[in-house]
Amino acid sequence: MREQFVKKFNSFREGSAKVMLAISNQRYIVVLKNAMPGYVPFTIMGAIVLLIANFPSQHYLDFMAGVFGANWQAPLNDLMNGAMNIGSLYVIALIAYEMSNYHKDRPILPVILSEGIYIYLSQITTVKGVAMIAISEFGASNMIAAILLGIIVPELYHFLIGHVPTIKMPESVPPMIAQPFEALIPILLIFVLAFGVRTLSAMTPFGTFAAAINGTIGLPMRALSSNIWGYLLAVFFVELLWSLGIHGNNVVMSILTPFLLMNSDANRLAFQAGKKLPYIITNEYFDYFGNVAFYMCIACLLIAKAPQLKQVSRLGFIPGLFHISEPLVFGLPIMYNPFLATEYVLFHVAGAGLTYFVMHIGLVAPLNGTGVPWTTPMILHGFLASGGHISTGIWQLVLAVLYTVGSIPFVRAYDRKLMSDNAKSEREINESANDPV
C-alpha cells in the first residue's frame, strides 16, 4: 500500500512539475519575468523622493519648510513625472526590448514603434488649439495596455518583416540606412491597424484603448489581485510550487505583478495627495509578510540537533536575512519535505491573511506604494514600505516571533527523523565494519 502511494505521489509530482515548467518557460512569461525587474530602479528612486517629501513627522515637515520655503515639496514631487508617473512608458520599452531579443530582431525600431503606438492610442485633448496628453495616461494605471502593446507590436513587426514585401536597398547601401527602409512597410501596416483599434475604441463607452483594456481584461484580474481571498489562493499556489522545487513567483506572480503595481501606484498617488490609501494588497505586500524560510532557519539554529540542519541553517542565515531563501528551500530542504513544506505553505497563507486583517482594522498602517527593494531586511522593510510608520515594522517583528515559534514543532519533528536516520546509518556502518571478511 505504501509503495503504491509513493508511486502515485511521484507520478503526480513529476506531472505537475512538467506542467508548471512548461508554463514558466512560455515565452510571454519569460519576457515579463526578464523585463519587469528593469522598472524597479525607477520605483526605488521614486520611493526615496516620496519619503523625503512626505515623511510622516510634522516637526520634520516644519523644519524643511523653514529651511527651503513653503513650497519645498513641489520640485521633489515633480520628479515623479520622470519616474513612476510615466511607468507605462518604461514598461512598454522594457517588454518590447525583451520581445525583440526573443525574436533576435534589432530592438531599436520595435521599441520606438511600441512607444509610438502607445502614445497614438492614448487620450489626446485639445486646449486652446494645442493637442495635449495628460501625464496620467502614461502612469501605472494603464500598465496592462502597455504590457499588451509591448508584446503585440514587436510580434507583429517580426511577423510582417518575414511575410510582407519590403523595400530592399542595394547591397552597397550601409545596413544602418537599409534596415529602416526594410521596416517601412511593416511599420506603416502596424499604424494602419492601430488606426482601426483607435477608431473602434472611440466607439465604445471607454473611449480609449487603455480604458477599454482596464474595463474588460483588467477588471477581473485587478479584482483578483485586490481581493484577499483571490490573493490568498495565489499565495497558496506560489508556495506550493516552491515546495515542489519550482519558482512559484515566476509562474504566478509574474502574471499578477502588473496589477499589483497598479495598486501600488494608486496608493502612492493617494499618499501624495494626503488621502486614504485605497488598497491593502500592493506589489510590496508579498515581501512584507513573507520570508517564512528564514524563520524556519532560526528555529533550526535554536533547537535542531541534526548536523545537516545546523550546517545548512548557518549557511542560509545571512542570505535569508535579505529574503534570499533558495539555500534553505533546496538545502534543508523544504521542497518535497512533508515536515517543512506543509508549514512553508500554510504559514505564508496565514501571514498574508493576518496582515490583511490588522491593516483592515487600522491596527497597522497599509503600505503606501513605496518601491522598497525586496532584499530589505524586516522591520526596516516595513518602515520604508509604509512611508515611515513604525506600526508596520512592529508587525513584522510580531510575524517573526509567530513564524519562529510556530516553526519549532515542525522543525523538531523533522530533526527527530534525521537523528533517527543518522543513528540507523551509523549502526549499519558499524555492523558492516564488524562483519568478518
Task: Describe the fold and architecture.
- 71% of the residues lie in helices and 1% in strands.
- With 437 residues, it is mostly helical.
- It contains 21 helices and two strands.
- The model has no long low-confidence stretch (mean pLDDT 85).
- Strands 1-2 form a two-stranded antiparallel sheet.
- Helix 6 runs antiparallel to helix 7, helix 8 packs across helix 11 and helix 12 packs across helix 14.
- It folds into two domains: 195 residues, no CATH class; 199 residues, no CATH class.
- The relative contact order is 0.09.
- Strand 1 and strand 2 form a beta hairpin.
- The radius of gyration is 26 Å and the shape is globular.
Shape: globular
SSE string, helices as H and strands as E: HHHHHHHEEHHHHHHHHHHHHHH
What is the helix fraction of residues, given as a range?
A: over 70%
Total number of beta strands? 2
Number of helices: 21
State the low-pLDDT regions, or none: none
Major sheet strand order? 1-2
What integer is the average pLDDT?
85
Q: What does the radius of gyration come to?
A: 26 Å
Secondary-structure class:
mainly alpha
Strand content: under 5%
